[in-house]
Amino acid sequence: MEESLNFVEEIVEEDIRNPVYREGIATRFPPEPNGYLHLGHAKSICLNFGLASKYNGKVNLRFDDTNPERENSSYIEAIKEDIRWLGYEWHNEYYASDYFEALYGFAVELIKRGIAYVDDSTSEEIAEQKGTPQIPGTTNQYRERSVDENLQLLEAMKLGQFRDGEKVLRAKIDMAASNMHMRDPIMYRVKHTPHHRTGSTWCIYPMYDFAHGQSDAIEHITHSTCTLEFVAHRPLYNWFIQQLGLFPSKQIEFARLNLAYTIMSKRKLQQLVDNGLVDGWDDPRLPTIAGLRRRGYTPNAIRKFCDRIGVAKRDAITDFGLLEFCVREDLNQSAQRRIAVLKPLKVIITNYDEEKTEYMSMENLPGDEANGSRKVPFGKELWIEQDDFMEHAAKNYFRLTLGGAVRLKGAYIISCEHIMKDEHGNIIELQCRYFPESKSGNDRSNIKVKSTIHWLSVPSAIPAEVRLYDRLFSVEDPGKTENDFLSHFNKHSIQVLQNAYVEADLAERDNAGVHFQFVRLGYFIKDTHSDVDHLVFNRTVDLKERWKKA
Ligand code: ATP
Ligand code: MG
Fold first, then answer.
1. 44 CA to middle of ligand 1, Å?
2. Which of 32, 133, 161, 374 has CA atoms 20 to 30 A from the CA of 275?
3. Is residue 396 part of a domain?
């Protein structure tokens, strides 16, 4: 069967056939180091690294570091770690700031050709002169400055002789252009802010539109992908490249990833972090790569997700359920099974010998002998889930009830005969009887039960904290509202269960980063801040879809 191509691959294949680019293809992933990577970036990474590997090309990692106030080098390290974790390696590591000198040279060249000028207008004046999509912009007297004057002024800007905002360098294109981006766009602004790489060498910094395309061209990037907001920037991208006679990089826009009930903007994620609503950039509730890793997502699941959502030209909101489906599918085949009891209720088996311990054999991965099995201790005192007991059975409740019976997974059938309550009427202990002839695998009891529940023996169980997560926001598209998105933050997005119990071997140190399925409860991973004295597990995902649209 012929594999269908996405529209970017179609463009690339056509360019290879024609051949437009004789050196082979080259892509780049250009993060701004002003925050951590999120799933939207993963989509872009999968696309760019995927194209390079499919067409035998190169992919550069380029830090788009032209806004010194918001950027710093700790983000650079985090970004590199995340890309590698996703399973990708770049051919070259570059920085837009490496091109500051070259970009300055391009600016001088455009001035000499009479198509760039220094403008003294304030930003308000510039905005006013720009017009509207219906009304053409107006020109000002600075537009007619001589080449020599412009050269001197640009040099003076570079030398720090002007304050922030006092002067800008603009391209002289067309103040009546129907595309607003072509109405004499700003190329450089004065900004007396030290840069994390160039220090205080520069006090003028290039704008995105003047830096990005030229950086692509310098690196001989053939296909430069970006999100749809940049469609209107494309004529300008091409204009600079053509005027300067540079390598003809091609900008291609695709739909950004939006995920329901979360946000995909670094700036907004930063606000959650800064306001202390989440536990840092790697909070397991965040759609950051670091957060998803801590939550227990796998690189494979994220790559599959990116593959499934595909690359299209229309914006849409992707259902969170698809991401969960991908991680479930991945973990189901690899995560060993263990038992945990999240909200424990004590069971005493009245007719079981106090001195006795039996070891119940359980497969680590059912149906996969290579993963072996383990012995889970069973005794007189057990923990079961509070949810697995109901004093008086509700309709369709088939688990344990007073007078009813249930199977303990991999062990015996028990029936509940007596309930102990505290002075407030809370159930604190169940007294049950077990049926010795009902042992799993050798059941001669003829007792019919409708349900199987999990359990742990009290002396063998290890205390742990378990964290369950829910959607980050209570509305589907929190990013839609610019200012009050924080008011939709879901305060119940984390549930911390302090009194859970887990099987003893989960306490071992070498389980860090290992994924488990806790029987009947979902997939879990030890939290990065977990330690032997205080075990913490994060739920990656439930076993079943529970994200039905609100
Ligand atoms: P943010 O708004 O989160 O800061 P950004 O686009 O400003 O995102 P950059 O670091 O500039 O972030 O982006 C690096 C690359 O990732 C760009 O090529 C950008 O198009 C791409 N990208 C960012 N967000 C998404 C998204 N939601 N879906 C797809 N690609 C994205
Ligand atoms: Mg950006």
1. 8
2. 32
3. yes
